[in-house]
Specification:
Helix 33 (590-603) links the parallel strand 3 (580-584) and strand 4 (607-610). By secondary structure, the chain is mainly alpha-helical. It is built from 33 helices and six strands. The protein is elongated, with a radius of gyration of 29 Å. It has a six-stranded mixed sheet, covered by helices on one side.
């Protein structure tokens, strides 16, 4: 980009005579480079220096604008071109760009006006323009007109068919899309990937995979469609499996591939694969001009894998950052318990002129919750709308109620629920229930459970809470009745699950899991750790076990929680001194939290656990959360 600026300065200060080189030709090349680097402002500046821009220059700037999704600006520029007496008349490339802008905005009125102009100018039968019209009408919801335009075409190419299939997929009518797909005589890579993406968007992953496996020859676009389909449907292990298969047969991933795979790495804590992708980006020279989407995905992966320093490194290297970039870092700092740094980053964002969004404030409120900073959290909540124009959503109320509940301010939390401008949902009441659990307010807890079950009769956490309360009070019959009620209503408790990555493979563990090939060694390590932990002062929190069994059985039940199994596997599978990284789908229980602290001191290793709400960095017998989570 710096070279473009130098060339532009040279052209302005020492213009080349028009008889030697047409200024429009130079401008078109420079505008194209600016568009590639998402610098639309610079592209517009180059265009403005042209004394007599021709149709190629007009099309270049319009394409640059639409290429970077500045839809309103594209329509404004097109209108200016139409109304300017000295501007050239639009051609088919002008119309395809502005129709793309109408489709992006879903502006049917503007689209119809341009359609009328297309007809008036005699371009309605032009293949490129007709394809763009079909695409536009699908995206504004006018399916019948889109299909009529397709049916009236005298000449169709593969793009015409792909546009029609894509339109039906976009509207959720995948069966009609498949009917058309099966009747295509000439399918290309886009045809296959469009249909796969259509199935994936509807959650029909089996159909998507069957179609993917039928492709006679696949390119990177087809692989991307399948990987993205799995990732968007939270089938992260499957996404990684397809990515590895893609590598094995020698298909080189592109930026789209990496943007799809990195969220899977983030979710499963697959740091090794994430680091490989980071290295691949560097080896390919992509890190020199790290794109916005790829940069955000890479920073998010590091933040969610417990490497907040690496996330900051990627963030600092990005040439262009948006509010999503800042929210990734702020939320990452929050989940690591780095409250002061999160607020410093927020101030830095404001200094850069970036307006915060609702996700940024979720990060700040989460940071206050993890640190127990009630006053700071309330101040942040109260200034959202007043100072920044960001209205609190139900998620923000949930975060503040969680903050108050964790701090023991249960009355204030309940008062806030009553004053909410929207109906409180299960998450809101669940946050208050968490406080009842911590501070053993069983009376309030039973009342809150009733409210939750009114909203969601299948809310397993409420039944478990009641069973725990009854068991702690010695009311074992009531606890048993609560569990029977769960069974009779078909309510299934979400099973605790933990993941750990070892040697580029992600291993999954459930409580009492015996399916792993190394189970014998894992349980041997568990027994060894339990013995050493007790010598170090560990006392199992058997009150967490709700079943009416003896103490020894309760200890055995606690010892086989999924995070303990994952930690044990990490210890037997990695070299001494290696950091153990575990991802847990639920909140880590008090017993596993105490155990992880003691284990970190015994084995002299750092253990990092990411549970449902935050990171716990265990080292030398201490946790980064300071036992407040």
């Amino acid at each position: 980009m710096a070279q473009v600026l130098q060339i532009q300065a040279q052209v302005i200060t020492s213009p080349i005579p028009p008889t030697v080189v047409d200024p429009n030709l130079v401008a078109v090349k420079l505008i194209g480079v600016c568009a590639h680097y998402a610098n639309v402002r610079q592209a517009a500046l180059i265009f403005s220096h042209l004394a007599n821009p021709n149709i190629f220059a007009h099309n270049a700037i319009l394409k640059a604008i639409t290429q970077n999704s500045h839809w309103l600006l594209a329509i404004h520029f097109f209108n200016h071109q139409i109304l300017s007496p000295n501007a050239p008349n639009p051609d088919e490339f002008t119309f395809t760009s502005v129709l793309k802008a109408c489709a992006g905005l879903a502006h049917v009125l503007n689209g119809q006006k341009i359609h009328a102009l297309v007809t008036k100018q005699g371009f309605e039968s032009n293949l490129f323009v007709r394809n763009s019209l079909i695409d536009m009408y699908f995206k504004v919801g006018y399916l019948l007109i889109a299909r009529l335009l397709f049916d009236e075409m005298c000449v169709r190419d593969v793009v015409s068919w792909n546009t029609l299939i894509s339109g039906y997929c976009l509207c959720g009518r995948v069966d009609e899309a498949r009917w058309l797909f099966d009747r295509m005589s000439d399918k290309n890579f886009v045809s296959w990937s469009t249909m796969i993406s259509g199935y994936a968007r509807m959650g029909k992953l089996e159909d998507a995979r069957l179609l993917f496996d039928e492709i006679p020859e696949r390119n990177v676009v087809c692989w991307n469609a399948m990987i993205a389909g799995y990732a968007q449907n939270e089938k992260y292990s499957e996404a990684m499996e397809v990515f590895r298969r893609m590598q094995q047969i020698g298909v080189v991933p592109n930026e789209v591939t990496l943007v799809s795979v990195l969220p899977a790495c983030a979710h499963l804590g697959a740091l090794d694969l994430g680091k490989w992708i980071d290295g691949f980006i560097s080896r390919r020279g992509m890190s020199l001009n790290l794109g916005l989407f790829l940069g955000n995905a890479l920073a998010d992966m590091y933040a969610k894998c417990g490497c907040i320093t690496e996330a900051r490194r990627v963030f600092n290297k990005m040439q262009h950052r948006d509010v999503v970039s800042w929210s990734i870092i702020i939320c990452g700092l929050a989940t690591h318990g780095l409250t002061d740094e999160a607020f410093r980053c927020f101030q830095e964002m404001l200094d850069c002129g970036v307006k915060p969004n609702d996700v940024v404030f979720m990060g700040l409120l989460t940071a206050c919750t993890h640190a127990g900073l009630v006053e700071k959290g309330l101040h942040c909540f109260n200034t959202m709308d007043k100072d920044y124009g960001v209205g609190p959503k139900v998620e923000h109320y949930g975060c503040v109620i969680d903050l108050l509940s964790r701090a023991g301010e249960l009355d204030k939390a309940e008062d806030m629920i009553r004053s909410m401008p929207m109906e409180p949902n299960v998450i809101i009441w669940g946050a208050l229930l968490g406080g009842c659990r911590i501070y053993r307010d069983s009376g309030r807890g039973e009342r809150v459970v009733q409210r939750i079950l009114e909203l969601d009769s299948d809310h397993s956490g409420s039944y478990v809470y009641l069973a725990n309360v009854y068991s702690s009070m010695g009311r074992f019959n009531d606890a048993a009745k609560c569990r029977l009620r769960m069974r009779d209503n078909g309510v299934v408790k979400t099973p605790g699950c933990s993941w750990i990555e070892v040697d580029n493979a992600v291993h999954e563990f459930f409580m009492g899991d015996l399916s792993h090939p190394e189970s014998e060694k894992i349980y041997s390590m568990i027994r060894e750790l339990m013995w050493k932990m007790k010598l170090a002062g560990y006392k199992p929190k058997t009150d967490l076990v709700v079943h009416n069994i003896d103490e020894e059985e309760k200890e055995d039940a606690l010892s086989i929680h999924s995070e303990k199994l994952a930690i044990a596997f990490g210890l037997i599978s990695t070299a001494e001194g290696t950091t153990i990284r575990v991802v847990k789908n639920l909140r880590i229980c008090n017993d596993c939290h105490d155990a992880a602290k003691i284990i970190s001191g015994i084995v002299k290793r750092e253990i990092i656990v990411r549970d449902r709400s935050r990171f716990h960095h265990f080292k030398d017998g201490v946790c980064s959360c300071r036992d407040y989570w």
